[in-house]
Amino acid sequence: MYRPDALDLCLLQALQLDGRAPFSRIAEVLGVSDQTVARRYRRLRTEARLSVIGTADHSRLGRTNWIVRLRCTPDAAEPLADALARRPDTSYIGLMSGGTEVMCAMKPRSRRDRDELLLDRIPRTRRVTSADACCVLYHFYGGPSGWLNKIDALEPAQEAALRPDPPETMDAPVALDPSDEALLELLRHDGRATVADLAAATGQTESGAKRRVTRLRRAGVLYFQVEYDHEPLGYGAEAVLWLKVAPPRLRSVGQALAGHREVRFAAAVSGRANIMASVLCRTTEELFAYLADRVGSIQGVQAVEAVPTLREIKTLTYDPRR
Q1: Which domains, and CATH codes, for the chain?
Q2: How far is it, in rounded angstroms, from Cα 129 to Cα 73?
Q3: For the CA atoms of the chain, what is the radius of gyration?
Q4: φ, ψ at 199 (rounded to 5°)
Q5: pTM for the whole thing?
Q6: Is 212 in a helix, a strand, or coil?
Q7: What is the mean pLDDT of each run of 10 residues along the chain (322 residues)?
Q8: Would you list the DSSP string of 228-256?
Q9: Closest CA to 22 of 162, 226, 186
Q10: H and E: helices and strands count for the chain
Q11: DSSP class of 221
Q12: How distant, in Å, are the alpha carbons of 134, 223, 276, 280 from that of 127?
């Protein structure tokens, strides 16, 4: 099996920091040629199914994200997961341990879209035995802060040279116009789309399209994530943790989880479990040690349900080959 080397890992972390950074800029920071970066990028696309995806931060748009746990009969899990993955308002679909649970992260554009899925479609779906919908209340880690930022492949000076300016503080939700929507839709499929493609999608000049991307990034609406297969990096044990935490400790527990190398997403949520975290470990033994030694020692954690992920059906884009 292909295993990325140190330069590959540096490239992955560089793209996580700035998914649209030119290869020439990355090459200069890494001390290699442009051709070497381009060649490594192509190999990662083939061997690790690397892709850079532009993502909209719905909290900056005044929208609420939801995480839904669906339990169903064994024969229904995969068809249900595939159907949900085809929806444009879902950003993650996972088949969970036992093969009877599907976890769905959804980003409805409106209250009507939310109610259509949660109150109409899902309750009417055959062979779904139960559904728990959790509102995401607060993000501790994830989104622009991808897991690759924790692999420490780059030196601090290299990180500083590649890290884009932080988004501006916004008091009110950002309103999108049709050109913004068209641009976000294109970048959702290819975060490194050319300026010419962006101009064609928005009906603007290339300089106008570039300014629009810059404006959306500065507003915190647009950020970039790196998708890839974890196993070539040596990480084969994925799980979702549902934590029941004493309310006065919610913030401190979430902040502690955000600092753990194993955690790629953590948020406070509504429901019986009030913190949800997605973790990535090398082996099941390492996952056990993480639960027993690190999570178990955090003050305020009252109970933890660990649910291994059997297969990711959708991350940000739907690929029926997964």
Answers
A1: 6-55+151-227 (1.10.10.2890), 59-137 (3.30.70.920), 140-146+236-309 (3.30.70.920)
A2: 7
A3: 20
A4: -65, -40
A5: 0.90
A6: helix
A7: 88 96 97 97 93 92 93 90 89 89 92 87 85 95 90 96 90 91 93 95 93 95 92 90 97 98 97 96 97 96 96 70 38
A8: --SGGGT--EEEEEEEEE-GGGHHHHHHH
A9: 162
A10: 12, 10
A11: S
A12: 21, 37, 26, 30
In the numeric block, which tokens belong to residue 87?
């929806």
31: DSSP letter: T
Q: Where are the beta strands (DSSP E) in 1-100?
A: 51-56, 66-72, 90-96
d(CA 17, CA 1): 27
Tokens of 12: 């992955």
Asked if residue 134 lies in contact with residue 267, where contact means CB atoms within 8 angstroms, the answer is: no
132 CB contacts (<8 Å, ≥6 apart)?
A: 68, 69, 271
194 C-beta neighbours (distance < 10 Å), count: 11
Distance CA 100, CA 93 (A): 13
Q: 34-47 vs 23-30: helix axis angle to the nearest 10?
A: 110
Tokens 């929507």 -> residue: 181
Token pair, residue 242, equals 């549902």
DSSP letters spanning 79-118: HHHHHHHTSTTEEEEEEETTSSEEEEEE--SSHHHHHIII
